[in-house]
Structure prediction request, 77 residues.
Amino acid sequence: MEHSDPAHTRANEVMETREKNLFEGVDTYLATGKVDEKVFYAGSRGDWIADLAIALKNDTKARFIMIIKNALAVNHL
Prediction:
């Protein structure tokens, strides 16, 4: 954790990479009509997010593993 920067979050990392690449891919498509499929592939994490959004929207009661801050909800043994 020492190397982490609380002012530079995972969201910042996504905006600097995935989001930037996606917007550049859209711009390229609009300018040339060519699609680079790698730009639009979200990877497995993106698939999970889409699955979660669909489950929430449709109230499917699907279960998902979530990684969240413990905040002492579970005491260290």
About this structure: The longest helix spans residues 10-32. DSSP finds three helices and no strands in the chain. Residues 70 and 76 are 10 Å apart (CA to CA).
